[in-house]
């Protein structure tokens, strides 16, 4: 903002003191500066849905950056144009900017690590035990229905539900183990001084694995009996049940 105002002020003063337009009015000069800037930088103006895929495609067409991960954005602290801007405005020196970058990268990596450890503990100690209990209960229901009616097909529906539940639990366990391996791989590099590499690993491996783990957990929420599910459901959160 400060740099932009400085540039705009120089452009405005240049027009006001122009030999070609010595009598140029302030309002006219201001409108001319705005017009010229819009023509030059109008590609950044967008009044639609900035989260839509259509805007991503349009931004790419306009030549704008699309930084999809936090480490990419943090890395901009070390960009030559960023350093030039901060030093020109006497805000931060190059060494201070680089220090800021390292701190933010380390903070990002640790935050992701906390989220991963929290998710793993929730799955291992809270969600999985409940799912196993419901699995056992459903398995017993299948046996009871078959014994009561004496017909294998009578328990077909309950059996299908049990198979669906079991497959989803297995999927959750597989993804949990995968996330644990990714977490351990990052922890093994604790002595690595390359904060950018660690942050990129967290963004490219831990975050996608964490999002992947969420899928079967969300699915299990819709399968496991509501009176057994140990956490607030989406329905309860949305409708304050």
TrEMBL record:
Query: What GO molecular function annotation could you give as one example from this UniProt entry?
Result: glutamine synthetase activity
Q: Where is the GS catalytic domain?
A: 1-127
Q: Report the Gene3D superfamilies cross-referenced here.
A: 1.20.120.1560
**UniProt-listed InterPro entries:** Gln-synt_C, Gln_synth_cat_dom, GS_Type-3
Extract the PANTHER family matched here: GLUTAMINE SYNTHETASE, TYPE-3 GLUTAMINE SYNTHETASE
Q: Which family does it belong to?
A: Belongs to the glutamine synthetase family.
Q: What is this protein called?
A: GS catalytic domain-containing protein
State the organism of origin: Perkinsus olseni
According to the entry, what is the taxonomic lineage of the organism? Eukaryota, Sar, Alveolata, Perkinsozoa, Perkinsea
